[in-house]
Amino acid sequence: MSRPRTAVVGGGYAGALAAVRLAGRARERAAVTLLEPRVELVQRLRLHQLATGQRVRSYDLARLTGGRVENVRGRAVSIDPERGAVAFQRDGKLAELRCDQVLVAVGSGIDTESVPGVAERAHSLAGPGAALRLGEALRALPAGARVAVCGAGFTGIEAVAEIAGARPDLRLALVARGRIGAALSVVGEAELRARLARLGVELVDGERVAEVEPGALALASGSRLAADLVVWCGGFAAPPLARDSGLPVDGRGLLAVDRSLRSVGHADVLGAGDAAAIPDFANGARFRMTCQAGMPSGAHAADTALAAIRGESPRPFDFGYIHMPLSLGRRDGVIQWVDRADRPRERVLTGRLAAVYKELVTRSAPPSIAWERRLPGMLRWPSAGARAPARAAARSGPSARPSLMD
Ligand SMILES: Cc1cc2nc3c(=O)[nH]c(=O)nc-3n(C[C@H](O)[C@H](O)[C@H](O)COP(=O)(O)OP(=O)(O)OC[C@H]3O[C@@H](n4cnc5c(N)ncnc54)[C@H](O)[C@@H]3O)c2cc1C
Description:
The strands form seven sheets. Strands 3-2-1-7-19 form a five-stranded parallel beta sheet. A five-stranded parallel beta sheet has the order 9-16-10-11-12. 28% of the residues lie in helices and 24% in strands. The longest helix is centred in the C-terminal third of the chain and has 24 residues, at 351-374. The chain is α/β, with parallel strands linked by helices. It has ten helices and 23 strands. α6 links the parallel β10 and β11 (171-175). Flavin-adenine dinucleotide (FAD) is lined by residues 9-15, 35-38, 42, 44-45, 47-48, 75-76, 105-107, 125, 154-155, 158, 239, 241, 273-275, 289-292, 294, 325.
């Protein structure tokens, strides 16, 4: 008798982890296929380092996920849950994968469409290729040239600080719609701003970019900001796969899932990581697109898939945040502690210790996949739990707080 097959689509942090966990826990009861166009795990957490010429260790996906997972190279173009089929492209040809369940973990992209001129004139950290192109462009800039990084979420902040460390001879501006650091506690915001200023970064708050023009940013306020190079970190975008497949999506285009991470329209389709619209926390806080939540969601989606194979009821995804870890180059950082619902606490960790902490967090992601392969079911994460509210005085609630992924 053939084993039920789960196709995990997308071999990033969430998908690779889901694949090894499901294959390891189900053993001979289920077959797992990982469909991913790339040979190596994309380390998105390190793309800003790649862009500044640093060596980033690579991990071969097939080795990382091991023999229990069948690795298929290809990019999914549509999912048909009725037929149990995933259509994918490889080397320009269309092929099909038959399966009983599909776990969608295709991550997110960078929104380069909403603002005119971005797609044509700005660089981004959309993937390793884009990061390497940005690196080349940065190296070609003469001393004194001005770089504008647009967007002050994780990506923008970490990118501008990394560029400042690699090219202190450039003039750098960080442009944000809101106030830079407003997602952090009062202390966290002050620390972040002081540290960026020390790196020579000009902080441009409350300015929306209306267009990226040749050599300048046209701002919605009417002013212009000269820029020899623009790095666009202005928000993550939903990948088109769920929408193109006619699966229910939320307002952002992310796969709409229930609390067990099953598609709200199709119980045999699951979602994890950035690609899934995980239901908000009980207090209304929204899941941020992070590896911190992405890997646990991958593990939980694997457990939900396993429950279906065993004919059991799935459990709701119970996850709580612990931190917002920001590196500011290789020697500095700001770690904002948060409560389980992602509200900043008063305390922060800064300086070299923060840089070491962030490095350890980043470094631990690929080995967590290897550990999960060796000891399936070992990944644990904090529960949303009933905890005392955070004491971050001037930051009232998550809905009042801009997202770090803005
Ligand atoms: C510069 C930068 C710094 C960041 N720093 C942090 C941080 O410090 N902490 C944190 O928690 N988060 C951070 N993030 C966010 C974090 O990287 C993402 O939230 C995380 O990568 C999401 O994991 P994922 O597996 O859902 O998606 P991804 O890691 O993006 O993986 C998605 C995978 O799906 C594949 N794929 C895409 N489309 C298809 C398709 N159609 N068919 C098959 N495969 C497909 C891709 O090739 C990729 O391998 C950062 C992001 C960036 C860009």
